[in-house]
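Page 42, continued from yesterday. The earlier attempt failed because a stray header line got pasted into the input along with the sequence. Redoing it now with the clean sequence only.
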Amino acid sequence: MIRFTPSRTLHTVAVVALAVAAASFWGAAHWAQAAILGILMLAAAAGLAYLASRPPIDISAQFVKIGGRRIAWAEITRLDRTGWFFPLIVRVTLSDGEQFRLVYAGSTSSANRLLRLLFRSARSATLDGTPQQALQSAALTQRKLAGPPRYRLLREEDELDVERLYQRLKTVGNLDPKSPSEDK
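This time it went through. Structure tokens are written below.
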């Protein structure tokens, strides 16, 4: 079972935002505009506390567990991304028509991994309205068109030196500074 939990730093950042909000409200007694910063920091602290309190997401071979709710993979018919990458927000549609939003506030790499695992495990689901078979065949075609990967053997400066030496060899015919008479 793979577990995805919200980032641990969200709690710390929420507490810091709350402290800045308190300091801003204290400073608003002397300067009224500081209350605006206090309201903004209070809203940020509330949002961050909400993201930090999201339940963990457990993925197994048979189901996905979000908090205390278990959902079998066969029940998931559609996964729609919203465009948010932090936090990752995915609209999930179940076979009975029920919809809910899955919110995950972790790193972008773990969010991408979570989305990939969700889509691979829910075999009958569509991603943003596109069936799995179409996405897999498009990815395979793209890999075939790209060909094998080309690895860089030299740095760019070294490639320029090799190209310069090659051009010199083509024009002169010999890179050795010795004259032909010295060889004998």
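Notes: The mean pLDDT is 84.
Reminder to self: strip header lines before submitting.
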